[in-house]
Each structure stands twice: as C-alpha cells, then as structure tokens.
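note to self: dont lose this again. the chain is below, predicted strucutre after it. 188 aa total, dont forget to put it in the shared folder this time
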Amino acid sequence: MKPLDSNQGAADGSAAPSLAGPARAWRFVVEALAVLGTVMIGVLGVIICADIVARNSMGASLPLVSEMGALLLVMIVALQLATTIRAGRLARTEFFITAVEARSPRAAAALMVLFNLAGAWMLGLIAWSTVDVLTGAWEAAEFIGIVGIATLPTWPFRLLILLGFGVAAIEFVVRALADARIVIGGRP
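---
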C-alpha cells in the first residue's frame, strides 16, 4: 500500500493533488539527500578504480581508500534510506499486505501505520546513537588516514550519516500519518 504522491495519478485516473509548500520542501530534502548519496556512489567508484590502478602500477594501495570506503558505504545507505521509504521499496511481506488490502483497505492502512511507526522508532534509535558517535568524533578530533601522508576528519561523514538516519525516521512518521488518514477517513 502506497500513499498518493504528487507525481502519481489518483486511482480514478484524475491528476493527483499538488503538494503544499511544506510537503514540497520536505520532498526536496529527501530527494536531495538521495542525490548526494548517488554522487557518493560515483565518488566511491572513482576511489576504488584509482586504488586498483595504483595497486597494479605501483604495487601499493592509496592511503584512505579502505577507511573512506567503509564510511562512504554507511553514508550512502543512510542518505538514500528516506527515498527508499518514500517509494515503498523496503523489504516487507507485500503478499500479506496486498491480501489484507483487498479485503479491507483500512485494516491494511492500520498495519502500515504500525509498520511505519516501528520503522520510525528503530531509525530514531539509530540516529540518537549516532549523535554520541558524532560528538565523540568532533571532540576527539578523530580522523582517518596516515599522519603526514593523507588524513580526513570523520565528523563530516558522521554528520551526514546522522542526517540521513534522522530524515529517514521522519519520513517513516510522514508515511504513518498518511496511512493514518486512510484509517480515519477511508481515503488517502
């Protein structure tokens, strides 16, 4: 079950209502994070390819590649998670929800409210635990790499990870509210 989005038509074929200002701004934030995550995929690919070339031509790995690769992978997942939630692409038992929805759209929406609230709770906990990691990295001036060769501070990576998980938790709440409207009013 997927709530109506601005670029989808309604079930009867009519155009979907346009998004209001705050909803449009929120959608921009979610999609901007996904774009940043996509750019980071390209950056990670370039770094890995450069490391392969360096290993084959110089017989040595480039500095920062493994540490930055690990941070980038987590950051990419965090940045693109809210868009995955928004698109309804998380792994779940669709066959069950679809069967319930065929019999009772309100019951299916109620199940989705519970699913979305559980997701918001879990990602909220992850985001909250990331705050401690971020502050520790900031206060300790944590960095990756080899001193004198190449180093990078870890706090920007950790800040984007926190931002990604926080926005994903809020997106779960947005989805829960949209499904709650179906439970209460019977329509999206």
